[in-house]
Amino acid sequence: MQEIKMNNCEISKRWEWERIQARLFKVSVKQLALTQYQQGGGFFINQAKNISITFLSAMAVVHGQITIGAMLAIQYIIGQLNAPIEQFIQFIQSTQDALISLERLNEIHGMKDEAPPLLPGENGNGRELTAGISYLPEDHGIALTNMSFKYPGAGNEPVLKDIDLHIPEGKMTAIVGISGSGKTTLLKMLMKFYTPIRGEIRVGEHRLDYINNKLWRSKCGSVMQDSYIFSDSIAHNIAVSDEVPDMKTLIRAAKVANILEFIESLPLGFNTKIGAEGTGISQGQRQRIIIARAVYKNPEYIFFDEATNALDAKNETIIMENLESFFKNKTVVVAAHRLSTVKNADQIIVLDKGRIIERGTHQELTKLKGEYFELVRDQLELGS
Q: Which keywords fit this entry according to its UniProt record (predicted)?
């Protein structure tokens, strides 16, 4: 409602709603008409049957073929058939509704399960993995080789094209670029939400496809632009996977995310309920809760996508200082527009239109005076 009022579009939104209601009304009228046709048709068949059999039995009595008692018996039997025929018509209507519901359910059940593909076997035929590899290799580095991806749909251009990238274990890799360059898509592919259309992603010597999804995601923590806040207590929003959160870990995570002071100022503390999608808290507080969620999990791999874009400069500085110690010995991939959050990364990758155009450290890339230099200059970070 705030957006509607701010953009003065009450009238257009009202008419949009009324057009939807008009279409729904037309559908309801058609449904009602169809119901009347079916009921009327069933009633017509029923009565036509009664009249026809009554006429034929009466003619048989007139011609002496049956007695009046036999005719009354026939009428009784016909009367007993009326109710089943009406029930059969109602059953047809219920069947139509059920088929529509089943069609919608089949759209979900027809989708492929998240499962690894065939792993090449010794005989070349391959064997199916039902759960995937249940351990991580010794080398925890991630390698992307000639990887491309595009979203399903006719005519869609690839979002990522021929990506060759090595993300070293225990180091911080930053991905920068203008909006729409493919940063978020790349992070979601590393978390196994999408699979490449060409090329591969490997963790050590294993393909990411073959690693058990549950195992991989248990090792990953993320702060995404579209991360969700549940309608639950703050404690359960931070410790999402734990039915009974560990208070020591909870407090540590809140400290790292610089939100412990705010939580302790609330009457119910960690037990304070917040609404769906973070109703009742600010955007910055919402983002800090999501950061605390990633810290609480204490993962080996961390994926941040614009993790501090809703924070003020002071909170951002404090949180980034806290995260520096948390990031030690962890494999971190950060996508950001704010270059102040990525300039200390071990390597910086510059994406443009789905391709890697530059890579190196902050100092190397600023000396290169290419696309990264332009991004730095636009944000007045070159002198810092």
A: ATP-binding, Membrane, Nucleotide-binding, Transmembrane, Transmembrane helix
